[in-house]
Write a structure and sequence with these properties.
single chain, about 160 residues, mainly beta, 10 Kd Chaperonin, Protein Cpn10, Chain O, 5-stranded antiparallel β-sheet
Length: about 160
């Protein structure tokens, strides 16, 4: 029997609000991952751990095609992604675990910034690569700065996400 994976104590964000497009970082262009709003990875974080679906490095930059090896190496350096699942103890305490956490609590489905190379890579049941990390590795929520990629003939323009 497969366990039910929607055991988050926080409400879930509508997947339509997760922006798609290009995320610009100092490391290059990353393709904002699309997520259907369901944890199909088969991985359920426990304690203060969180599961993130990281953005992938762009396979084409302008007219330059990026080879698979370089794309895989650069994807490991991703610093943005979608929060897929949250352990029961995540964001209960501050980062040094000395006092209760205060501030905005991230929700499943939100785009987040996290530390480069943070956590461990986990292959989900759905064939996607996830990162399982401590809650203190997540540094912020992504609220804007996604670049629209359509229509293709016009110059990209900055779009604010929901």
């Amino acid at each position: 029997m497969t366990p039910k994976l929607s055991m988050s104590r926080r409400p879930h964000v509508d997947p339509a609000s997760v922006p798609s497009g290009i995320v610009m970082t100092p490391l290059g262009q990353f393709v904002a991952v699309l997520w259907n709003g369901k944890n199909e990875s088969g991985i359920l974080p426990i304690g203060d751990r969180v599961l993130i679906l990281p953005d992938g490095y762009a396979d084409k930059i302008g007219s330059i095609i990026v080879d698979d090896k370089q794309q895989g190496d650069k994807s490991k350096a991703a610093e943005t992604g979608v929060l897929v699942a949250i352990g029961d103890g995540a964001w209960t305490w501050n980062s040094d675990r000395t006092r209760p956490f205060s501030g905005t609590l991230p929700q499943v489905g939100q785009r987040v910034w996290f530390e480069r190379y943070a956590g461990s890579e986990q292959h989900g049941d759905d064939g996607r690569l996830y990162r399982l990390m401590d809650d203190k590795c997540v540094g912020g929520l992504r609220v804007n700065g996604v670049i629209e990629t359509k229509p293709a003939r016009r110059k990209p323009r900055l779009v604010k996400s929901a």
